[in-house]
Amino acid sequence: MNFHGKAMLETMLNKYRGEIILFVVTIIAASGWFFSKNALIEFPPLGFMGLRFSIAFLLYLPFAYRSLKQLSSEQIWRSCAVGLCYAIYLTLWLFGLVHSEHFGEGAFLVSLAMLISPLLSWWIFKDRPHRIFWIALPIAALGLLLLALSKGTLHFSLGSLIFLSSSLCGAIYFVLNNQFSRHIPVLALTTLQVGVVGIFCSGYSLLFETFPDTISAPSWGWFLAALLLATNARMLLQTIGQKYCHVANAAIIMILEPVWTLLFSILLLGEQLNWSKTLGCLCILGALVVYQLPIILKKKTPQAQ
User: Fold this and answer.
1) For the chain, how many structural domains are there in total?
2) Strand-pair partners of 153
3) Is residue 298 assigned to a domain?
């Protein structure tokens, strides 16, 4: 490649670095499903999640310590309440992984949290959804119906039902986190949430699970991949990517996560989709895109010269 070509490539990479970073984030997020699934071959489910988030909490703590000391008791209580919702959401998601081999379908079911959350926000905080939501909702409902069709009858597997339940809890977490994050420093809020997940999952594991006497090196490798890549690196890269990427582009890029999960599930797990499940996934993807249209179509405000 000549000098002119290298200069053009460097310019393009600088211009679209936010989009490129978020594109990588969606791949990492989708990969996290499979990191966790492979780790769970030997790790007990809640023990895996408790250890993962306890270590993540310790990694965050030195950077958040000063902010944590300045929080009021009410802010701490609210942060922990949001963390508990997050813990329940992750627990259900984890059990969905254990009981399902259809990660593509599960990823689209979990992504419905984005469309459930406006209804919950309207019910809890009287925050009316935008008009575009009422167009996206029936498209998503049709997708859900198509995913449930099996040989002409309505049926959800146990894994799919758990993923759907996790989507509801994920929506509750999203709504509460959106409300409380406005008045609580982000790093302190995140650190407390991660800590609550670690305590909740570790406590459950100590009471009801048993760790194997030995865990193989490959399983520890999958655990480290889930911790360092799918948790810490993903959150850091997403923050950096959103800093350099217009919100409209970020919104549409982040919708790619269930798409990658579906593709990986087909390639790695041999997941097969019949016509109804394929159309169901496409409808849910279409609903997510429609819901983001006001952001995607909104023009940037011209900068003053």
Assistant:
1) 1
2) 150
3) no
